Amino acid sequence: MLEIKNLTKSYDGNKVVDNLSLSIAPGEIYGFIGHNGAGKTTTIKSAVGILEFDQGEIYIDGKNIATEALECKKIIAYIPDNPDLYDFMTGIQYLNFVADIFGVSAQDRQEKIKYYGDLFELTGSLANSIASYSHGMKQKLAIISAWIHSPKLIIMDEPFVGLDPKASHIVKGMMRELCDEGGAIFFSTHVLEVAEKLCDKIAIIKQGVLIKQGTMEEVKGDESLEAVFLELED
Amino acid sequence: MFKVLVKKQFMELFRNSYINKKTGKAKSRGQIKASFFIFAFLMVLLAGVFFFMSAMIGSTLIPMGMAWLYFSIVGVMAFLLGVFGSVFNTYAGIYKSNDNEILLSLPIKPSVILGSRLLSVYALSFLYTSLVLIPGTIYYWIAGDCGILQIVCPVILWFAMAFAVSAVTAFLGWVVAFFARRIRNTAIISTILGGGFFVIYFIVCQNFQYYIEAIAENAGQIGDTIKKAFYPAYAFGEGACGGIIEFLVFLVISAVLAYLAYLLMARTFIKMAISNKGAKTKEYKEKTVKAKSVGKALLWKEAKRFTSSTTYMLNCGLLLVIAVIGAVAIIWKGPDIAQVLYLIPDIEEYLPVGIIMLVFLAASTCVISAPSISLEGKNIWILQSLPIKAYDVLSAKTKFHFILSAVASLLLSLACVFAFDIVDGACAVSVCLATVVYSYVIADIGLILNLKMPNLTWTNETVPVKQGAPVVITLFGGWLVAMLVFGAFLGLRLGLGVDIGASKYCDVILIILVLVHMLCDKWLKGTGSRIFASL
């Protein structure tokens, strides 16, 4: 579903991502962990086509993001680390805007907005301006907007930040459900317990270089993910 | 701490002048000099206009021994310009700054944060008031007295007037913030109020000569009324002429006003700065929705962005007000003006091009597309990550600008064509079409400039909307083009003796504009789209 081959990206001559390769198959939840500034966000932004990279190739469902960006973007959804949404819209206006761009039918979107809005207990607030939303509410809205067009691949940067425990639990369930239906998830996190419980595969990045990847068992063996991560970081 | 905050305020205010927003690197000396030269040129130009207006008033009142009334009128003009120019900026700058919460979370007294913000309000007020007061004072020194008191007192009063204006704008900004917390659609309401201000200003300007004559005829009576009913205006006028008591009284009035405004704001700053906008919540009720096409959705988004911001509407959509008032005024007064105009020999040969210039001047005040990329700010990831072509995004921005601007320009041109009796049908069509296409060209140019000079890191939207180079260059560049169009026609006809006729000249202008639009559109499709994707 997502294949990154030899990705390299530099800023002012400093390599922030160096020859990174990874592959995510349909049905997989793939966790991406690393310290602050390790290159996670740069990799994610490159994968969703909003950041140009220097070398390498990124394929989404077999399509090259550099040459077929539009086709790739049609089947993915992206949630950034900070949900900066349109403050001048109401929640429902934003969801309808995203649905319009993805060509989601009126009936389909209404069903999904009702379903996910109720699930996150956000339906009652959808008529209010996004400017009045808390960080967690904005994050919930960003999540609903990501799921509204039934993407095949969802790429998320720290999706659990700002969410209450109940909402986090719901999101984890949604992630698993999407993968069970043949989709895939690629997300970064600092919460190692979440990664350990949720991910099928994991990759650890340090100073732009992928230092370990594989299934959870392959990466951590008998140790805890936290112990492996700290060991590798040292 | 105060110094650090003031430095931050002014760094943001002048950041565009010395930092390239796209690369984050410092501009070259040449670029910095060019920015300051353009700014200085505009200031001198505006000061020239006010000098001319001051001369019109002063040449009547100063010889009559009513210099104080002259200064009172100049002072009121400065006061109104200062208040109108900075009131919405004050609201946005003090209460809607993105960094309010972060600053309030730091160990800094709220009063210090407020004080630093108010200092930038004062700087802006001083800028506006001095545009009127400095040329007004210079005229007085030329035509009136030039003793030591007449030099020192007005100069000190420039600073005092800026205090008074800051106090009033700060209070009005507080009122706007107070209501903004309680009502929805504040942007529309504020814009209507702002538009109302503009209508009054327009009417006053239009009847300026009449007012001067009325003042001259009734100077004594008006003077008495001002003394009794508008004592601060009298104190300012008399004080500027060297009246020590009135001078001191005005200083006290300014200081008291500034202190009261500060007290009011200091008491409520935290509450109003961090409270949610549109605090009244509304329960969502499911409605049947109609799916929109990508183009319509993007266009709707631009409309929503525009109508949600008073600052954006007032500063970039001025044409819409000008067009409606102008069209009504032209239809109403047109026959009288035409009667006078047709006394000039061969005027019918110049009128179509004159109309084009007039509407171009008005259309150039519509600069909706010029800050539209910068206004995406931190939200730019949304459009970049969605499956839409960059060109579709850019196209929606120019189209939205075009729709509003074209309707307004067409209204204005039609009013002129009918009022000034342009009988050549083909020529009338050319004039109208040229003004409509010009709207598109202005939309294109504004967007291109913003793509070249984007500012996505603002903390206050007045920065890209009011101080952004794309907005300023589009506005004044548009005016220059308008004047060049008419100047070239005059030059050809009178200077070079080449007479192609107004109708053909309008056709040529139309063709050039269509070509420019096509070139701009091609640029937006290629280079522009690539720039947008890489922002």
CATH architecture of chain A: 3-Layer(aba) Sandwich
User: Span between N and C termini of chain B?
Assistant: 34 Å
List the chains of the largest interface with their residue counts: A-B, 43 and 39 residues
Provide the spatial order of strands within the biggest beta sheet of chain A.
6-7-8-3-9-10
Number of separate helices of chain B:
21
**Helicity range of the residues of chain B?**
over 70%
Low-confidence stretches of chain B: none
SSE class of chain A: alpha/beta
The total of beta strands of chain B comes to 0
What does this structure look like?
The complex is a heterodimer of chains A (234) and B (535). With 234 residues, chain A is an alpha/beta fold. Chain A has one domain: P-loop containing nucleotide triphosphate hydrolases (Rossmann fold), CATH 3.40.50.300. Chain A is built from nine helices and ten strands. In chain A, the strands form two sheets. A six-stranded mixed sheet of chain A has the order 6-7-8-3-9-10, sandwiched between helices. Chain B is mainly alpha-helical and 535 residues long. Chain B has two domains: 234 residues, no CATH class; 241 residues, no CATH class. In chain B, 80% of the residues lie in helices and 0% in strands. The longest helix of chain B is centred in the first third of the chain and has 34 residues. The radius of gyration of chain B is 25 Å and the shape is globular. The mean pLDDT of chain B is 83. The chains are: A alpha/beta (234), B mainly alpha (535). Chains A and B meet through helix 2, helix 3 and helix 4 of A and helix 12 and helix 16 of B.
